[in-house]
Amino acid sequence: MWHRLGMARGYSRDLRERLLRAWASGLSAAEIARRTGVSPSSLRRGKRKQATGASLDPGASPGGPRKLPAADEPALRA
After folding, report:
1. In a domain, 17, yes or no
2. SS3 annotation, 11-37
3. Element spanning 73, H or E
4. Residue 15 contacts by C-beta under 8 Å, 6 or more apart in sequence?
5. Is 41 a member of any domain?
6. Region 51-70: what's the mean pLDDT?
7. What global pTM score does this model have?
8. Structural domain of residue 38, as residue ranges?
9. FRET partner for 18 with CA separation of 20 to 30 A, picked from 28, 39, 57, 77?
10. How many angstroms separate the CA atoms of 10 and 50, rounded?
11. Which class for 55: exposed (0-12), middle (13-18), buried (19 or more C-beta within 10 A)?
12. Which residues contact residue 24 at a Cβ distance below 8 angstroms, ignoring those fewer than 6 apart?
């Protein structure tokens, strides 16, 4: 169904919505965590945001500015 994500943060809004739908459909937070690698605390935080009407969009990533200029990214992808 899902693969192990292996990410610590920065889940997309789409993923957050799918995880919360899976939880609402009856899967336990522990089962979702086992299948995806998303921690149960992240699921609970998302559910709390959803219940209060807060945005599920990911926040800004911590850290410094990008080292690679946006103009160089197509060459890197090639």
Report:
1. yes
2. CCHHHHHHHHHHHHCCCCHHHHHHHHC
3. helix 73-77
4. 5, 38
5. yes
6. 82
7. 0.63
8. 13-51
9. 77
10. 17
11. exposed
12. none
Q: Count up the domains in the chain and report the number.
A: 1
One-letter amino acid at 59 equals G
Q: Domain for residue 38, yes or no?
A: yes
Q: Exposed (0-12), middle (13-18) or buried (19+): which is 72, by Cβ within 10 Å? A: exposed
If we measure between CA atoms, which residue out of 61, 38, 63 comes closest to residue 46? 38
Does the residue 63 lie in any domain? no
Assign 3 a pLDDT band (cuts: 50, 70, 90).
very low
The pLDDT tens digits for 33-59 are 999 999 999 999 999 999 999 988 887
In whole angstroms, what is the distance from residue 13 CA to residue 8 CA?
15
Contacts of 35 (CB under 8 A, 6+ apart): 1, 2, 4
The answer to whether residues 58 and 6 touch, using CB atoms and an 8 Å cutoff, is no
